[in-house]
UniProtKB/TrEMBL annotation:
Entry's Gene Ontology molecular function annotations: zinc ion transmembrane transporter activity
Protein name: Cation transporter
Listed transmembrane segments: 24-51, 57-75, 87-107, 127-146, 158-179, 185-204
InterPro entries membership: Cation_efflux, Cation_efflux_CTD, Cation_efflux_CTD_sf, Cation_efflux_TM, Cation_efflux_TMD_sf, CDF/SLC30A
Keyword Transmembrane helix: yes
This protein's GO CC annotations: plasma membrane
First-listed, main subcellular location of the protein, grouped into a coarse class: membrane
PANTHER family named among the record's database cross-references: CATION EFFLUX PROTEIN/ ZINC TRANSPORTER (PTHR11562), RE54080P-RELATED (PTHR11562:SF17)
Membrane protein topology class: Multi-pass membrane protein
Keywords for the protein's UniProt record, in alphabetical order: Ion transport, Membrane, Transmembrane, Transmembrane helix, Transport
Domain of life: Bacteria
Domain Cation efflux protein transmembrane: 24-215
Length: 313
């Protein structure tokens, strides 16, 4: 006896991911404009901080474009061949964006260290101008995306891209002021290194989380040992095996388990009651919502005759 939601293509079961395409379009347009402006500025000034921020802006623009494509695909309905639709595309898109951010951050760190020892001449006035242009544009994009940043991995990655670029523009401005007031040319390289220091940890954290989803690790905040303990404490339950949990996409965790009960439960009506009790127990005691849970109720004899590999947790 198994239960849970039907894992067919009913859209109501996969949950609606939300339509954020308009916000992403606006943010992408702003970021693409920043790319053009800062690319011109990096050529004019020869600034590493501005060049790094330009490369970062290119990454942001491409990342936002990927996010926009992902947001479009996520809205495609599920069907019998794609039972979850394209919901996981948000995870793949976020993983790709985090990888790009790591590349940009690594380049900025290497080039920044080199320029600490060989600082080029950087015109502070032009650097300040392009830094202010970038910061203002990024603040507008941040305002647009802020309210939706927690909606899913895709929107979170898009918001982080724009936020990091705004911090980069702020670094460019600070470097320009320092150069203008003190003539300390290494300020440009230091700003580039600080931008890298801001990019890499956030990108690595997002990469780790999205990779965990793709590897089907247990959702954060869900302790399977505690889940097992709660189920085993229920009446008529003798064992729990094949207990697995994973995340399909944001807001779509899944949980499956085989629950062994007394043989007589299948003749006295307790099997159905136990199934209901298991589902209620999981829903009541754990913070992570599991809308797509499937539990197979079986006897000891059935459990013993299952393949060993299937029973391995």
């Amino acid at each position: 006896m198994g239960a849970g939601h039907n894992h067919g293509p009913d859209p109501s079961e996969t949950g609606h991911p939300g339509d954020f395409r308009k916000k992403l379009w606006i943010a992408f347009s702003i970021t693409a404009t920043i790319v053009v402006a800062q690319a011109v500025g990096s050529i004019v000034t020869g600034s590493l901080a501005l060049l790094t921020d330009t490369a970062h802006a290119i990454t942001d623009a491409s990342g936002l474009l990927v996010a926009l494509i992902a947001a479009t695909l996520m809205l495609k309905p599920a069907n019998s061949k794609r039972t979850w639709g394209f919901r996981r595309i948000e995870v793949i898109a976020a993983l790709g964006q985090s990888a790009l951010l790591l590349i940009v951050g690594t380049y900025a760190a290497i080039e920044g260290i080199r320029r600490l020892f060989e600082p080029p001449e950087v015109p502070a006035t032009e650097l300040l101008f392009f830094g202010i242009v970038g910061l203002v544009a990024n603040i507008i994009a941040i305002t647009i995306l802020a309210s939706s940043r927690g909606a899913n991995f895709n929107m979170r990655a898009a918001f982080l891209e724009v936020l990091n670029d705004a911090l980069g523009s702020l670094g460019v401005i600070i470097a320009a002021i320092v150069i203008a007031t003190t003539g300390f040319m290494q300020a440009d390289a230091i700003a580039g290194l600080l931008i890298a220091a801001l990019i890499v940890p956030r990108a690595f954290k997002l990469m780790r989380e999205t990779a965990g989803v793709l590897m089907e690790f247990t959702p954060q905040g869900l302790d399977l040992d505690e889940v097992r303990k709660h189920i085993l404490a229920l009446d008529h339950v003798k064992d729990v095996h094949d207990l697995h949990a994973s995340t399909v996409a944001t807001g779509l965790p899944t949980l499956t388990a085989h629950v062994v009960v007394d043989d007589e439960c299948f003749t006295d009506g307790h099997a159905a009651e136990t199934l209901r009790a298991v589902k209620d127990c999981v829903a009541e005691h754990f913070e992570v919502s599991v809308p797509h849970s499937t539990f197979q109720i079986e006897t000891e004899d059935i459990a013993e005759h299952e393949p060993t590999i299937a029973k391995h947790d």
